[in-house]
Amino acid sequence: MSAVKAVGVRVALDRKPILHGVDLAVAAGSWHAVLGPNGAGKSTLLKAIAGILPHDGEIQVGGQIVGKLSAKQRARLIAYLPQQPQLPGDMTVAEYVRLGRTPHLGYLGVESGTDRVVVDSALVRLDLTTFAARRLGTLSGGERQRVVLARALAQQAGVLLLDEPTTALDLGHQQHVLDLVDELRASEGLTVISTLHDLSLAAQYADGLTLLVAGEAVARGTAREVLTEQRIAEHYGARIRVFEGEDGRPVVHLIRRRRNEPHGE
Amino acid sequence: MGSGEPGAVARRESAVDGPMPPTVAKTVGGASAEQVGVDRSSVSHRLARPTLALLSATAVLLLAVLIASFGGAADLPLAGTAAALLDELPFVHITTGLTPVQRGVLDQIRLPRVVLATLVGALLAQAGAAYQGVFRNPLSDSGTIGASAGAGMAATLVIVYGGGAEHSVAGIGAVPLAAFVGGLAGVLTSYILGTLVGRGGTASLILAGVAVSSFVGSVQAFVMQSSTADVKQVYTWLFGSFTAADWGLVRLALPYAAISVLIVTLHARHLDVLALGDDEAATLGLNPVRTRLIVLAAASLATATAVAVSGIIGFVGLVVPHVVRRVAGPGHRLLLPLSLLVGGAFLVLADLLARTVLAPAELPIGVVTSFVGAPFFILILRATRGRDR
């Protein structure tokens, strides 16, 4: 069963077409990675699924058509984390995570006991209880990602959209955040759709991949099916080799240009 | 939920600074009650400080009102003034010991002026907090984004060319109505100009607002001077004053004040969500554009009301929310009501200075608020240096 299904999605920004009819099908509880060179329309696709960009075609989330939902109904189904989330420096971690409850509150924003329990459990789940009173401005990059994930968790939406969740994180923190997302996916039954610029990481974590090039999906399937040397070389314009890594998942490796290669050194 | 394992509880307790309430300490160790007890502890921790802050701010405001009521040109006894203030309350009757003349000074001169200053200070401070939230810009204020100037200009035009205050449209006075429309127009002009010249960033909005304000201010000064030939009156308007305060002005301002305060306060959480940026606000179920317009209209109504009864008073909306934010954090559910109280207290005291420093002459109140506000403005600029993009 597909938790997220997109058929012929077209998006234009400032009258310039960005997506030219993209199809997508993501099984419930799975992790889907959207890949592609810069400017392929990855973030645009995520925003369209999140319902914050007007689009043609149809996007269904949990069997409901995104374009026909109210903002609040949508927010209960889909949580979206942009590439660079805005974290107001003076706000505390607890205050920030509480904002995740917004779609569940009435117009006046009065929180119930349930809302507080959900927020507290999101803090516990991401090991942030000792951070609750910390100001966002004092957090490190890895801590910020945990706080942002806690906010998304408090939103209690079944679908989690992540735009480049590992940007600006070092190797260890990249792994930590992706492992965390994977754990949440498994334990909370979340469906995850993320853009990832690191192809090897995408191969490691995603169950399904879509390769987006110039607003069109040129390949979709498992990592082994999508990440072939020829395809990556063609669409990224890069010299690469694909090796077999852990669990037979592909590892994409950049090859340095050698001077006067034909003649040797 | 973290299934209530002791580790999680211990961690959470250590997160709560200050002594634990005994009831909560007792529940730790129970099964489901434990979780509830812990949750309550974190909630009570959240509530304790806000309640304290609100009570302190209320106390400060009451104190300011008392000081401003007995201080001034005609000496009133402190005890009698305090008693008379209580006597003014409904259902309270106290013998004040004031002479009829003293009571008259208090009731007809001092008190309306103090009440009006409270009202205007509260409106300007809350409007400032609201503008800062709407534009996600710490320098936004009715003075820096064109609202005051627009409201003042429109009100002046109606007074000078439109036959003045006796006109009304659908029961609403022409002056407040014009001030509202002018205030909104001032904000929108600044916003559009700021977007045109520099993508609507922090600096460009403020620069456009300052440009609009100076331009409109000069036109206003010209209009007033050419019609009254009384420079003093022009200055009274441009720097604000409560010399004309009476119960009539209080009654004029009160309904608009109530509406704008109600609307702004009800959107506190919306403003918190807006702080995350439009995309995230929209994916949290908010309509950012609609929210902005509603709060903007309400804040401009507050500004217009303040300008209509007291002229242009700068820096209250800038200084007060920033001081409050330092103490109470950026959450609007506390920031907005606290700004009301502190803003009221600030302007009451500023007005006390304005009418006592050069007594029997009076300083325009804007001179006092700017004297405090301008240096503060520089400090904010310094503190937020580097954040401007």
Question: Could you describe the 3D structure shown?
Answer:
The complex is a heterodimer of chains A (265) and B (389). Helices cover 32% and strands 28% of the residues of chain A. With 265 residues, chain A is α/β, with parallel strands linked by helices. In chain A, helix 4 packs antiparallel against helix 5 (141-154) and helix 5 (141-154) packs parallel to helix 6. The mean pLDDT of chain A is 90. Chain B is mainly alpha-helical. Chain B has a domain at 113-383: ABC transporter involved in vitamin B12 uptake, BtuC (Orthogonal Bundle). Chain B contains 16 helices and two strands. Chain B has helices at 6-15, 22-27, 32-70, 78-88, 100-135, 147-161, 174-198, 202-228, 231-239, 247-266, 268-274, 278-283, 288-310, 316-328, 332-356, 365-383; strands spanning 168-169, 172-173. Chain B is globular and about 60 Å long. The interface between A and B is large, with 44 and 36 residues.
CATH class placement of the domain at 113-383 in chain B: Mainly Alpha
Number of helices of chain A: 9
Largest sheet of chain A, described in full?
Answer: 6 strands, mixed
Low-confidence stretches of chain B: 1-47
Radius of gyration of chain A: 20 Å
Order of helices and strands of chain B: HHHHHHEEHHHHHHHHHH
What distance lies between the first and last C-alpha atoms of chain A, to the nearest angstrom? 56 Å
